[in-house]
Structure prediction request, 311 residues.
Amino acid sequence: MEIVKGINNLNSDWDGAVLSIGNFDGVHLAHKNICAKLQEKSQSEKLKSVILTFEPHPLSIVAPDRCPSLMTTLSEKIKRLENEGVDLMVVEPFTKSLSEFSPKDFVMTYIVNGIKAKHVLVGYNFHFGKNRKGNIEYLETLGREFEFSVEVLDPFTFEEKVVSSTEIRKMLASGSVADASLLLGTRHSLEGLIEKGDGRGSGIGFPTANISSPSTLIPSNGVYACWAKVKSFSKDFLPTVLNIGNRPTFDGQNVTIEAHIINWEGGDIYGEEIRLEFVEKIRNEMKFSSVEKLVDQIALDVKKTQTILEK
Prediction:
């Protein structure tokens, strides 16, 4: 898949394209369905298949207080879309001036003159242009005027659940990482830097990697079975018990992300990048009456994690 940063850098020297527009956060099953339809249409019509997306998320510019925590960084999104058979992805910088485009200006700039789309595939709730004033009916009107067709995709369901980024974010926010993985078609992940903590984990026999600056949505507080990879140390993912929370047994005040990589033998990893992939929530975070009882519970968490990850 070719990546073009900005419509001004696109060389659309072709007879037309099949286009879909969206944020594609998570690249979940509904997005994969869009990609499959793009590929099918582009092959039958012998046209380029193109995705137009925006970076950063438009809400981060027009309404920062309503912008959700995202499930994928741009690099992760690209990596996942590369497996879906799309020819080209245009990543358009989203700016304040772009948010002021009228619906018609948006269509003329991106669909008609920029990408030269012959067919546009959009979701059932697609809106565009300033204040999202452009709707599907208006897009179809412009399509008739400028000779591109519009196909509106119905909600995509999996096991009777409508698949959407919003619903998957809700699942993750409640800790339902296993259910979220089913709708994503892959495990939810986050990446961050390992920083030096207070050493309590090592002191009780379960050393942890404290993770700062996580790149994506953090699931709710609790203990999770995960796979972890310290990027510069290993190509393999290792079984990991992950705790997200404020460590109530130690009267912690701030939320921390602490990964106990089971049987880690790689040495000092402070300052290294780590990737975590969530498999299942083991339990809620809880306060223990003594450090000894906490240690006993962590030992049980390790065993449960190993059982889960061996499946």
